[in-house]
Each structure stands twice: as C-alpha cells, then as structure tokens.
Amino acid sequence: MNPTNPVVKLCADGMKAEAEGRGADAKALFEQAWRERVDDFDACVAAHYIARHQPTADDELEWNRRALAHADSVADDRVQSFYPSLYLNLAHSLEKVGATVEACELYSTAAIKLDGQPDTPYTRLVRLGIVTGRQRACATVAASLEDHL
Description:
The protein is built from 7 helices and no strands. With 149 residues, it is mainly α. The chain folds into 2 domains: 1-56; 79-149. Helix 3 packs antiparallel against helix 4.
C-alpha cells in the first residue's frame, strides 16, 4: 500500500493509536479516513479498519462486507495482497454471528487468497488467523453435521 495515500496514512496512524491503547483516537482516525475516501480502494481500506470498532457483531459484519465489496470494485491490482485479510475478517465476523458454514467457507477462501503471497510477519499473522479460524468454524460445522447423522 502506498504510505503517501492520505487514507492509508490515516489508517496507519489509527493502527498506531490502537497499539498505544488509544481506541477512541483510532476509531476517529478510521472514520476520518472513510470521510476522505476518493475511490473504492480507499473505501475498502477505511471500511476494513472501521469494522474493528463497531459496537455489535452485526455492525462489524456489515463493515467487513462493505470492505470486500469495495475491494471487488477496484479495477487494478492494488487490493490483491489485502484480500486474505479481508476474507479472514469477514469470516470471523460471520463466525461471531453464528454463520459458521459460511465462515468455514470464507476461511478457506482466505487461505486460497494467501497462497503465493510473500512470507512476511503480516502474512504469517494472517495465516495464523486463517488456521485457527478454520479449526474453530469448520470443527463446529463438522460437529453439527455429525449431530444430524
């Protein structure tokens, strides 16, 4: 991502605020990024981070869906490396609202999107989230299926 992009910079500042325990400041920076978006790429990035600060699981799910929809509307390859995280977060939101079958499927999609990405601390973190999410959601789906046999 281009660190000179104003929306990316606001989101980076928001992530720094989160790391420092300043959640309200982070939320304000992410919301400012949303207001300053100029295209679907910007909207995707801002929505992804706004989702983290929603009061309910349903609201978080809506923002994660919005982030993915905006990513799908980007006409170039700027979001390609972001897709694994988008699918991971959408799957986790679905899991939180009890949509475990769909969550299991999207964790698998996230894993496919991660395939071929360079091995970095960020991709290792995303991979760990995918693996643990799949274990939780897919195990729940399997147990539910066994109960119906």
